[in-house]
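WARN retry 2 of 3 for item q-0093 after timeout on previous attempt; input resubmitted unchanged.
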Amino acid sequence: MRNLANDIPDNVVDTLLGVCQDNTSIFQRFFRLKARWLGTERLRRYDIYAPVVKTQKKYTFDDATDMVLMHFSVLNPDIQSGT
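OK item q-0093 returned
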């Protein structure tokens, strides 16, 4: 049903899933490396998206909160106003 809603033919999804399955070892190796780079034994779901580059950027809690709320407000303006 989701394929139809996204206008994606079933054979395309089947091909994607097959390629992913055939290359599972590559994904597993990458996730083991990323866990090591992040200094954790096991990745959590949100770790998958974490950058692994070093940065000197520092944000105060208030600045970070403002950035998050500003970006969320694009999805729903009520989020920024707290209503």
